[in-house]
Design goal:
Layout (H helix, E strand, L loop, with lengths): L2 H35 L3 H19 L6 H14 L3 H19 L7 H13 L3 H19 L4 H16 L3 H19 L6 H14 L3 H17 L2
Helix pairs in contact: 1-2, 2-3, 3-4, 4-5, 5-6, 6-7, 7-8, 7-9, 8-9, 9-10
């Protein structure tokens, strides 16, 4: 057998080896998520940590495959209110994505969103706002101004302003989000509900009760149609 054939067989062996290892990691990852859904949080953490550690040992600490394991472990930490640990992993995941893919690559958008949602849930609105503005800008550049992902970005940003009582900033964002979703997904799509609820809260806070009633009625009808 010549050297070329031996080399090709070796490469094939490595591919099979890595493929089998990746399948094992995915199996562990799924097990961690299953344990979490069953409320077995301590066991879920143990398995998720093992998954990440195994991936790091095999592929190194800066391999793109780590991103999903970092996010999953961060989510488990957040579920158990281990917020410092969760924040560090969400940030590490985003930094890794930026380093490997570039700061303007649309594939890093989910990592931006994860960290932004984390900050929003902790009422760290300044940090959340800057990330959601970046998320919105990235989605507009990637998909155009009338894409459902842009609508999601607008709604999230609107919720941040709403939570701070910045109603004049929040209102046009909710309205634009609703307009995009109606145009791209249809007037009865369930994704409209979050924006409608946000707008209803805003109308109530600004004593526009008729508009509030209309938003609530619209949202309720959508939900009824999807029962």
């Amino acid at each position: 057998m010549n050297r070329i054939k031996i080399f090709l067989l070796y490469i094939h062996f490595l591919i099979l080896l890595n493929s089998g290892f990746a399948q094992e990691l995915e199996k562990l990852n799924n097990e961690a998520m299953k344990l979490n859904m069953e409320g077995k949080y301590d066991k879920a953490l143990i398995v998720a940590k093992k998954t990440l550690e195994s991936a790091e040992k095999k592929f190194g600490s800066e391999d793109l495959s780590l991103i999903s394991y970092l996010n999953n472990l961060a989510s488990l930490y957040e579920t158990q209110e281990l917020f410092n640990e969760a924040e560090l992993l969400y940030k590490r995941s985003l930094e890794l994505a930026e380093k490997k893919l570039g700061t303007n690559n649309p594939d890093i958008a989910p990592n931006i969103k994860n960290l932004a949602l984390f900050y929003y849930s902790k009422k760290l609105y300044n940090q959340a706002e800057s990330l959601f503005l970046r998320y919105l800008d990235l989605n507009e550049k990637s998909f155009g101004p009338e894409h459902p992902e842009v609508a999601t970005s607008l709604t999230n940003l609107g919720l941040i302003y709403l939570a701070q009582g910045l109603y004049t900033k929040a209102e046009p964002l909710f309205q634009r989000s609703i307009s995009i979703r109606k145009k791209t997904l249809g007037p009865d799509h369930v994704s409209l509900v979050t924006s409608l609820k946000g707008l209803a809260v805003l109308y109530k806070a600004t004593n526009r009760l008729k508009e509030e009633e209309n938003c609530i009625e619209y949202a309720v009808n959508i939900l009824k149609n999807h029962e």
